[in-house]
Description:
The chain is 84% helix and 0% strand. By secondary structure, the protein is an all-alpha fold. Helix 3 crosses helix 9 (203-229), helix 5 (101-130) runs antiparallel to helix 11 and helix 7 packs across helix 11. The two termini are 13 Å apart.
Amino acid sequence: MRREKGMRSRKAIEKEIKIMEKQEASLRQAAGRTAAPQWKLALAEKVPTKVYDNLQKAFCKAFCLIFEKGTGVIERTYDKDSIAEDYEIRNFAFQLKADRKSLKKVRGDVGTANMRNMALASVEGIGLGVLGIGLPDIVIFVGVLLKGIYETALHYGFDYQTQQEQYVILKLMETAMQKGNEWELGNQEIDRIITGTSETKELPQRLERQIKDTAEAFAVDMVLLKFIQGLPVVGIAGGAGNPLYYRKVIKYVEVKYRKRYLLKLQNKLLESP
């Protein structure tokens, strides 16, 4: 009976892993398309260097501010204990029934939460864009994005409050914004973290460097939209980019957290007698 149950559990996990791997392959393919539209390159050349520098600094400040003081504020926007309890219930249900229902449910719950957060990113970005507000929007946008990532982590049973997990979150965000070989290298590092083979020494220093690297990745990709968003009237076009970037980042983050969760379940089954 126990052996049969173990086989059902393995099959359920393997099916979910196959779905995850297809989504991961799709993300790799999208990241491989490195060529930017000619109009975008032409406009980006007209953006003053000072705007890029200020944007990079704004993202750095936003990450530092939220990690140091803003997590508690973000947690007021969702029921942390309820999400954690749901995770425990689903986990117990999977151990008891050994079917895919609880594994599929967590995907659905995360998707629903992220649809709400994407709508929030839309309202926030377009609302400030109409007013011609660009750089001050960064803290709010990062807050909405981290809200989605925190909720995703909780749904898959991971605590986001440790320095180690903050580093992981920043690395996920940076990689989601990258393309080509940079995406591949970042993705490989994320997989090493997932499998427990990544370097964990000098964490405070690595976290500080990662904040700068992630801020730079966002500044490079979003500089044009945020520059436009700072202009009255046409700013709505820049603000409309927020939900697109939210979706881009959260898709990658969700796939990698799900991968961690499924491999963790798989390893537990392999360790069990």
